[in-house]
């Protein structure tokens, strides 16, 4: 089977109106390191941010540094003893926590490094504050590339993930939204998020991932949820080498059907970059545009949307793709020639904004994909009428995410002016 790439012209910005985009970035996140030989590099978030800034996208959106998540907020999902362990363990005192390290699965894949707890709190704070702004109608799209750590469990680190910022963000969204849809395009199954909401119909999880002798080994077609959550977990198990056209032929029908039948009022999209061609740990063959097509398609529904990062282990490709997708979310298709940026030498020899597919063989036959789609649509039939959710009282916001519509004179902070005033400082299309 010959690989197929989405042509450049095929990717049109799908927009109903001008979306207000809130972008969360904390420069400290790139100062943390899992270790020199570890494939997870937080520096890729700074690489993506450098491209976003040098392409001038900061003029189009509101940029925030989120307040780091507190212990109390983290414990809305994670167990108290697990979060307490993360806050106390360091490389220097690791010997004192040998029993806990085994219990909480901290070791090789999920090493203890300097500033581990602070790293987790930055990731969690961005996703929670993004969700809180969506809840208050302050933006239409919230972006947190430091988030997307979908493998973390209630009391266990897993797959380079310690804190499940996605679950915390969804919990925040559920304060205002009766139904939330979670979509995962990382090459790995979004097992931590699926497990957290496996028994409820208020969150539908949909994961497109490599299945079969591949981490984490979960996410087969028959895993659909239990109890009230039966049929509200959707898994799309894929094989090696899937290309743009094939991925699109599965992604759009499945998401289109879910939108039609489940009718979510908020969406969380995990944009793991390890499904891109040439990833160090991945085995898919998506180009930058094939990956971005998923973001573009979900955005076209006009539903409040939280966009988070995830995996991605070929740093230059992750940075390129997240920058391109940030452009799409702001209704801009970025120029193919890269602007000069802090990491310019990483993008040689072509210095272009593109991730091209290879000639990798696509093992996903039309017959296999038809079988998968038939099974998924059959399961979705059971969700045809969106569940009615009776909300008697809306839980109050967390104190850290209080509303910002105070009198501007009272809302001063150290970053200059009130939060409300800064919200208005966004470049209009005709400013220059």
From TrEMBL:
Substrate binds at residues 109, 159, 313. It comes from the Eukaryota. Residues 388-432 are annotated as: Disordered. The lineage of its organism: Eukaryota, Fungi, Dikarya, Ascomycota, Saccharomycotina. Pfam families: Hist_deacetyl. Belongs to the histone deacetylase family. HD Type 1 subfamily. Its EC number is 3.5.1.98. It is an enzyme of class 3 (hydrolase). GO terms for cellular component: Rpd3L complex; Rpd3L-Expanded complex; Rpd3S complex. Gene3D superfamilies: Histone deacetylase domain. This is Histone deacetylase. GO terms for molecular function: histone deacetylase activity, hydrolytic mechanism; metal ion binding. GO terms for biological process: heterochromatin formation; positive regulation of macromolecule biosynthetic process; regulation of DNA-templated transcription. Its main location: nucleus. Keywords: Chromatin regulator, Hydrolase, Metal-binding, Nucleus, Repressor, Transcription, Transcription regulation. InterPro entries: HDAC_I/II, HDACs, His_deacetylse_dom, His_deacetylse_dom_sf, Ureohydrolase_dom_sf. The active site is at 151 (proton acceptor). It catalyses: N(6)-acetyl-L-lysyl-[histone] + H2O = L-lysyl-[histone] + acetate. A divalent metal cation binds at residues 186, 188, 274. The keyword Hydrolase applies. Residues 38-325 form the Histone deacetylase domain.
